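U., I forgot to send this yesterday:
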Amino acid sequence: MGKFEQTTAYYGAYYLGALIAAKKIIEAYPPKAKGDDGIYTKAELDLITRDKANMQKFLEGCHRIGFRDHIRNTKGKLMSCEAYWIEEYQSDKKSKNT
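Result:
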């Protein structure tokens, strides 16, 4: 096994471990936020724990999270939404600096 494969395997195991740890913490201590905050928190946690790539983006801390597909009931209460990574955030910061 070459150095590249060792490095890749190391980081893959690191992010897999972080992903498993996050899922176990969420199972043990579910978020107790109420109202819209609870819906947004659940959407964020679903995004972060979806796969290793999302966990990596979260741990790096340089990606913003946005929300879309808001579903509301007939009274206007937020029932669900989807979180997503705002990818253009990094390119916007780079273009402003140049």
